[in-house]
Amino acid sequence: MPAPLCLVRSSINIDETFGVPHIVRPGETISSSSLQSRPGGKGANVSAAVGLAGQAVVMSGAVGLDAPWPCDELEKRNVDVSAVSRLEGVPTGRAFIQIAEDGENSIVLLKGANFHADEEADDPARVFAKAPRPPTHLIVQNEIPLPTTQRFLAHARRAGTTTIFNPSPMPTREELTAFAWSDVDVLIVNEGEARDLVAALSSSSSGEPGNVLDALEPLIDSRWLIMTKGAQGVSARVRCSSSASSNQARTRFEVPPAKPRQVVDTTGAGDTFAGNVVAAMMTRSASADVDEQGARQILEWAVIAAAMAVEKQGAMESIPKHEDVLARQQA
């Protein structure tokens, strides 16, 4: 079996983070107590999480020549950036983030280079061929054009690569309805995203929040359905290899939250969770096929990593290293 390699085809941003007393309300003007510029973007964050977790990862995306420095930060976190295009005349993507005193956040995105057509970065065959070895795992999100994401998923499916999709920001109802969900092995969503999916793919109501994942389960045939619930932990439905009916039924998992020592900034928790799910998968198999014990261990590991990520400021800068997660797990 080839050594595992994760390819991330997604976004690279600069996070412009404003400290505010509370998230600004419509029509309101408030003063910011601080401004910091940090590397970010969901793709950059999740690739950094995989790299810091000790797994090989290649980032594919685009930055502008006005600010290519996020690539330097990725390299410091063990991410191969040789597949990142540097574009002239197009700005690097930006995320304008408000961080409230209670740790909650609100984000506005400038697409920039992430949405600029680039012949090389948009061609999955070229990107896969440039990788040091055939990628075993592909992570995609929704901060680049959705047709590009779909092309990469389809190519990965043909190549036998395990596919992970985190549809954030959420596509439109029409895009969700037309999406090729059969190309997705692992779906990772939060509660709000799960509700949006159910609303788009089903004519029935999802009911109470605890029923959202149950409502989503018959609508998407991915092997893994994972729903993060913030301070309430994680719910998952996984088609495990140890199940007697592994071709049909999914095993239900309810993973309690790991308690952070303090809550400073929740911005990067979701990307840290997703990256650590994939990194933990990579230690076991090139596929998404694991037994029940392995699935629970993967989810518990990622929950600890995500809890640690909220203890520091910054999306990428808060992502913990493998050895730090291990130490917290064993404490």
Automatic annotation (TrEMBL):
<feature type="domain" description="Carbohydrate kinase PfkB">
    <location>
        <begin position="17"/>
        <end position="321"/>
    </location>
</feature>
<keyword id="KW-0547">Nucleotide-binding</keyword>
<feature type="binding site">
    <location>
        <position position="314"/>
    </location>
    <ligand>
        <name>K(+)</name>
    </ligand>
</feature>
<feature type="binding site">
    <location>
        <begin position="41"/>
        <end position="45"/>
    </location>
    <ligand>
        <name>substrate</name>
    </ligand>
</feature>
<dbReference type="Pfam" id="PF00294">
    <property type="entry name" value="PfkB"/>
</dbReference>
<feature type="binding site">
    <location>
        <position position="190"/>
    </location>
    <ligand>
        <name>ATP</name>
    </ligand>
</feature>
<feature type="binding site">
    <location>
        <position position="312"/>
    </location>
    <ligand>
        <name>K(+)</name>
    </ligand>
</feature>
<dbReference type="GO" id="GO:0004747">
    <property type="term" value="F:ribokinase activity"/>
</dbReference>
<dbReference type="GO" id="GO:0005634">
    <property type="term" value="C:nucleus"/>
</dbReference>
<dbReference type="GO" id="GO:0005524">
    <property type="term" value="F:ATP binding"/>
</dbReference>
<feature type="binding site">
    <location>
        <begin position="228"/>
        <end position="233"/>
    </location>
    <ligand>
        <name>ATP</name>
    </ligand>
</feature>
<feature type="binding site">
    <location>
        <position position="267"/>
    </location>
    <ligand>
        <name>K(+)</name>
    </ligand>
</feature>
<keyword id="KW-0479">Metal-binding</keyword>
<feature type="binding site">
    <location>
        <begin position="270"/>
        <end position="271"/>
    </location>
    <ligand>
        <name>ATP</name>
    </ligand>
</feature>
<protein>
    <recommendedName>
        <fullName>Ribokinase</fullName>
        <ecNumber>2.7.1.15</ecNumber>
    </recommendedName>
</protein>
<dbReference type="InterPro" id="IPR002139">
    <property type="entry name" value="Ribo/fructo_kinase"/>
</dbReference>
<dbReference type="InterPro" id="IPR011611">
    <property type="entry name" value="PfkB_dom"/>
</dbReference>
<comment type="pathway">
    <text>Carbohydrate metabolism; D-ribose degradation; D-ribose 5-phosphate from beta-D-ribopyranose: step 2/2.</text>
</comment>
<comment type="similarity">
    <text>Belongs to the carbohydrate kinase PfkB family. Ribokinase subfamily.</text>
</comment>
<keyword id="KW-0119">Carbohydrate metabolism</keyword>
<feature type="active site" description="Proton acceptor">
    <location>
        <position position="271"/>
    </location>
</feature>
<keyword id="KW-0808">Transferase</keyword>
<feature type="binding site">
    <location>
        <position position="318"/>
    </location>
    <ligand>
        <name>K(+)</name>
    </ligand>
</feature>
<keyword id="KW-0460">Magnesium</keyword>
<comment type="subunit">
    <text>Homodimer.</text>
</comment>
<keyword id="KW-0963">Cytoplasm</keyword>
<feature type="binding site">
    <location>
        <begin position="13"/>
        <end position="15"/>
    </location>
    <ligand>
        <name>substrate</name>
    </ligand>
</feature>
<dbReference type="InterPro" id="IPR011877">
    <property type="entry name" value="Ribokinase"/>
</dbReference>
<keyword id="KW-0630">Potassium</keyword>
<dbReference type="GO" id="GO:0046872">
    <property type="term" value="F:metal ion binding"/>
</dbReference>
<dbReference type="GO" id="GO:0019303">
    <property type="term" value="P:D-ribose catabolic process"/>
</dbReference>
<feature type="binding site">
    <location>
        <position position="143"/>
    </location>
    <ligand>
        <name>substrate</name>
    </ligand>
</feature>
<feature type="binding site">
    <location>
        <position position="265"/>
    </location>
    <ligand>
        <name>K(+)</name>
    </ligand>
</feature>
<keyword id="KW-0067">ATP-binding</keyword>
<dbReference type="InterPro" id="IPR029056">
    <property type="entry name" value="Ribokinase-like"/>
</dbReference>
<comment type="function">
    <text>Catalyzes the phosphorylation of ribose at O-5 in a reaction requiring ATP and magnesium. The resulting D-ribose-5-phosphate can then be used either for sythesis of nucleotides, histidine, and tryptophan, or as a component of the pentose phosphate pathway.</text>
</comment>
<feature type="binding site">
    <location>
        <position position="309"/>
    </location>
    <ligand>
        <name>K(+)</name>
    </ligand>
</feature>
<keyword id="KW-0418">Kinase</keyword>
<feature type="region of interest" description="Disordered">
    <location>
        <begin position="245"/>
        <end position="267"/>
    </location>
</feature>
<dbReference type="GO" id="GO:0005737">
    <property type="term" value="C:cytoplasm"/>
</dbReference>
<keyword id="KW-0539">Nucleus</keyword>
<feature type="binding site">
    <location>
        <position position="271"/>
    </location>
    <ligand>
        <name>substrate</name>
    </ligand>
</feature>
